[in-house]
Amino acid sequence: MNVTSSRYSLIASIFLTLLLPTEANANNLVADPNSHWLFHFGASVMLYGHIGGGVLGILSGLVASLAVKGGHFHRLAGRVFVVSMAVCYLIAAFVAPFLDSQQSTNFVASVLALYLLITGVTAARRKHFVAGYGEKIGLGVAAIITTMGGLFMYLAQQSPNGSFDGSPPQAYVLFIVAGGLALIGEINVLVRKTLTAKARISRHLWRLCMSFFIASGSLFFGQTQVFPTWFETSILPVAFGFFPLAVLIIYIIKIRLPLVMHRRSSQAA
User: Fold this and answer.
1) Which sequence spans correspond to the domains of the chain?
2) CB atoms within 10 A of CB 133
3) Under a CB-based contact definition with an 8 Å cutoff, are residues 146 and 129 in contact?
4) CA 52 to CA 105: how far, in whole Å?
5) Structure pTM?
6) Cα first-last separation, the chain
7) Is 131 helix (H, G, I), strand (E, B) or coil?
8) Of 116, 75, 138, 90, which Cα lies nearest the Cα of 209?
9) What is the spatial distance between Cα 124 and Cα 117, in angstroms, rounded to a whole number?
10) Do residues 124 and 203 touch, judged by C-beta distance below 8 A?
11) What is the pLDDT of residues 132-141, one digit of tens each?
12) DSSP states of 216-264 as a string?
């Protein structure tokens, strides 16, 4: 076998490894000790890709949130945030069906976060926003996410142990709320056919901030054991976890308040 074919074989093996995580412990992506070394390699790639993408995404999201909007640092940090979080969400969505428990919660959360990320970015890039096939697809995705959230919540409430797939009913509230808001947004866009500049920016902000919140909440609320005791017992996990929502509220007020004041002054005049 020549060098070129060896490289192709290695690439193919790695690719198949990433697509076949069945021999890995899905809870922590650690391969069985008796597995082939490629499964260990694939599990490590997915594990550190997910962790690295999430950490880099949260840090870049923090920078993008604090930087001057539209400035160089905002755009640069925003690009890093989108790429790193897309990697994190894609790996999470792919691995979730192989988990021993909480497959539904993790899978739907990953799809929701990725959907919000993509639609939020496209809203910022499309200066002249006109509804098209993307919004029709988004309508279907938002409807599925909202329906799944409601269904899983119902199954959890009806379950004897008060949970579905290891998750309590309240775990699906975010899917219903965020999915429902996204669904309303897609309907609004398809009916109006276009968006004003302020509506487009609002769509960009709330979707990216909500996607950011899913990541920050997963880390600071769901993985507190990775932090030092002093950090875990302080108010910092709550502050960092809800930071994206605080940013969203501040900028929505900043965008909407001048518009409301202008309307009131016009009515008074």
Assistant:
1) 1-98, 101-249
2) 7
3) no
4) 21
5) 0.79
6) 84
7) coil
8) 116
9) 11
10) no
11) 899 999 999 9
12) HHHHHTT-GGGS-HHHHTSSHHHHHHSHHHHHHHHHHHHHHHHHHHHHH
